[in-house]
Amino acid sequence: MPPDGSRDRSAAPLADVAGEPRTLRRLLVTGGAGFIGSCYVRDVLGRRDGTRITVLDKLTYAGNEANLAPVRDDPEMAARLEFVRGDIADAAVVEPLVEAADAVVNFAAESHVDRSILDPEAFLSTGVIGVHVLLDACRAAAGRPRYLQVSTDEVYGSVAEGESTEDAPLAPRSPYAAAKAAGELLVRSYVITHGVDAVVTRGSNTYGPYHHPEKLIPLFVTNALDDQPLPLYGDGLQRREWLYVSDHAGAVDFVLRNGASGETYNVAGPTERTNREVVALLLEHLGKPWSLVRHVEDRPGHDRRYAMDGSKLAALGWTPRTPFEDGLAATIDWYRANEAWWRAARSGDWDHWYQRQYAHRLAGGQEAEPLEAEAAPSTAD
Ligand code: NAD
Ligand code: DAU
């Protein structure tokens, strides 16, 4: 070891044992109190295989310790969870936690496109500086922890036709997506320059329980439960691939243990739908009328379509399990059964946010035209 105590980073990253998933028993999960990160924590600890997790989370408006309540309520799982409130951009907090970990799984980000249009700064501080601090701590740590960056299909930009493969150019179109692309490029640079052992996942639109109500599906479900208008941007014909949250969390864990260092893996949802189709289906499940829908002013720079080719990850051995209709029904049941959770998430600065984002839109909105066209989904799963 060099005199300054650091490790020689010129060595090649640790090789995977051929065909064997890595055994990683001490995980640092950043952003583990958010939507997908908390699902990951619940699911990994729920395997009861001795894995210990430290969650580092800043608890922004989107982070919620209540998302980890199922772990806290179970003594065996609770004993394997440590929670640290802090910022991934704070090196003094990050370094000792990374030093103690076999792997770092980074879910932490500002995640809402609409907020990135109004207030982009926090997106850069977490998505760029925060990622840099985590990577630098991995570079310096004696145990050479593996690093996984949770990224997004939004780095490809809007995809008019076909599906993005992992080697497609990065073409982000919102401040959120640009920050995520920048984070990925930092990962790439640390793999090449410093030999950090790192992998990247790019997930598609994720939905499920514990999803903050600012996003399309939970916003429309909770508004509909209250018989409030549903603000559909533009013509509502934008297309997304919908991925159930436990499938997304499972894919992240699969790549953490099986992915090759320096590689990126698309985690493609199984079902492409227009927003109108999604809304029609959720209203049908809720037994609420289409007349709640309002066509409102569009999101600036709104990406028309995301679509990814998931064959690289399928070849490694992972495909999503949850059909959209089943996942959506389970999600709606969860929101019905957990009203206290979503009412709490719609408190604090929620009214201020809602006014800022929607008041003028709803004032100028129009009732949506009837639904005939949505009777049959427009694409195969
Ligand atoms: P989320 O907004 O629900 O959760 C983000 C979490 O990160 C919160 O707990 C928040 O408190 C925490 N956080 C934010 N800034 C932090 C900081 N500086 N330091 C420490 N913690 C911080 O987000 P999500 O939907 O669960 O997304 C998780 C990750 O997955 C993000 O990186 C996002 O870009 C990516 N992703 C999300 C989706 C999706 O559809 N939700 C799809 C693909 C990729
Ligand atoms: O594709 C992956 C991305 O999916 C993630 O990287 C992001 O973190 C996540 O937020 C999500 O981004 P989207 O912008 O696609 O999700 P959102 O739920 O905000 O919007 C989904 C679609 O619904 C999009 O076309 C915009 C539209 N929409 C959204 C809201 C909140 C509306 O029509 N009305 C709304 O009020």
Question: How does this structure look, described?
Answer:
This protein is of the alpha/beta class. It has 14 helices and 13 strands. The strands form 3 sheets. The protein has a 7-stranded parallel sheet, with helices on both faces. Helix 7 links the parallel strand 5 and strand 6. The radius of gyration is 21 Å and the shape is globular. It starts with 25 loop residues before the first strand and ends in a 14-residue tail after the last strand. Mean pLDDT is 93; it is low at 1-18. 2'deoxy-thymidine-5'-diphospho-alpha-D-glucose (DAU) binds at residues 111-113, 152-154, 204-205, 215-216, 219, 231-233, 238, 240, 275, 299, 306.
Strand-helix topology:
Blueprint: E1 26-30, H1 35-45, E2 52-57, H2 69-72, H3 75-78, E3 81-85, H4 91-99, E4 103-106, H5 113-118, H6 121-140, E5 146-152, H7 175-194, E6 198-203, E7 206-207, H8 216-225, E8 230-233, E9 239-244, H9 245-258, E10 264-267, E11 271-274, H10 275-286, E12 293-296, H11 311-316, H12 324-337, H13 339-345, H14 350-363, E13 366-367
Parallel strand pairs: 1-2, 1-4, 2-3, 4-5, 5-6, 6-10, 7-9, 8-12
Antiparallel strand pairs: 9-11, 12-13
This protein binds nicotinamide-adenine-dinucleotide (NAD) and 2'deoxy-thymidine-5'-diphospho-alpha-D-glucose.
